[in-house]
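Structure ticket #2291
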Amino acid sequence: MTPNFIKLTTESELPPADEAKEFPCGEKTICIANVNGVYGAMDNVCLHRGGPLGQGMIEGGKVVCPWHGWAYDAKTGVPEQNPAAKVTTYPLKIENGDVLIEI
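Resolution: structure written out below.
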């Protein structure tokens, strides 16, 4: 395990296909999205009004904020509504059933 990666959760806790879920990580909360079986990790706070992205839905391959419908690409963190903005995304890896994130 490289020192930059920390354990976020276990593989069994990850969201099912086409769902998102919130995970506490130190001072912040991370949104993990499962888009067609591919996991993406990003800050949980929507850039529009601070909505909880991990409580949103996945539609058309994007994480949709439950408050006002901003739709984010889980890999790039870029919202359709404002391509000049982005939320921070994080590398993830799974080792021995643990989900590790690089913050």
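Closing remark: The beta strands are 5-10, 19-25, 28-35, 38-43, 57-59, 62-64, 71-73, 89-90, 92-95, 98-102.
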